[in-house]
Amino acid sequence: xxxxxxxxxxxxxxECARNLIGCSLFWKGCSGRIVETEAYRAIGDDAxxxxxxxxxxxxxxxxxxxxAYVYLNYGVHWLFNILVKGEAGEGFVLIRALEPMEGAEEMxxxxxxxxxxxxxAGPGRLTQALGIGGGDHGASFLELSECGxxxxxxxGVVAGLRIGITKAADLPWRFGDPSSACLSRPFx
DNA sequence: GCCAGGATGTTA
DNA sequence: AACATCCTGGCG
Length: 188
What we know:
The protein is an alpha+beta fold. The protein is built from four helices and eight strands; from the N terminus they run αββαβββααβββ. The protein has helices spanning 13-19, 54-62, 104-110, 123-130, and strands at 24-27, 30-41, 68-73, 77-86, 89-100, 147-150, 158-160, 174-176. Strands 1, 2, 3, 4, 5, 6, 7 and 8 form an eight-stranded antiparallel β-sheet that branches. A hairpin with a 2-residue loop joins strand 1 (24-27) and strand 2. The protein is globular, with a radius of gyration of 15 Å.
C-alpha cells in the first residue's frame, strides 16, 4: 500500500474525485474505504463555494493541496472536503461515503448506535462517525501520523449527478463504487 | 417503500 | 435568504 501525498491533489478536481474511489482514509484511530465522492471546480462551477463565498477563494489561495476544507451544512452537519490545487485546476473533493474498516465500535458510539449500514453512508454521517468538526478546517491531515490516506483502486467506478444541489445540477461529477452497501444513495 | 417537514448556524 | 443533510413520523 502506498501513502497518498499532496501531489495526489494537483490534478483536476474531477480526476481526483474519481481516483479517490477505492482509496482508504485514516483519521485518529478510525478508517474506511472511500466509496463515494463529488468534485467541485473553483472555476466555471456555480455549485462550488467559490461561486458565492470570498472565504472559499481565500482558503484556496492560502492553503496547500490535500488540506481539509470543513464547513457546517444546514447548521447541523460538518462536511469534509479535500483541497485540490494544481495547474490542471483548483477546487474541492467532497467525501460522501465510506465503508468502515478500523474503529467501527468508536464510530458507532459517536453515531448513537445506528445500524452499521448507516454508520458512514453520507457526508454528514461520516464526519460524525470520525469525529471531524470545525476545528479540523484547514488541517493538513495528510502530514499527521494518525491521519492520512492510502492509495487504492476500484475497477467499476461510475459517475452520476451530484446530490442536493440546485446550481450546475447537470454535471456528472459524483463518483462511486456502485456495488458498495455504504452509499449515501444508489447510483442509477 | 415514499414523501413532507423541521432542526440548526454560517455566509453573504 | 439560501444552504454540497439527516432523522422522524405519516402513510399504506
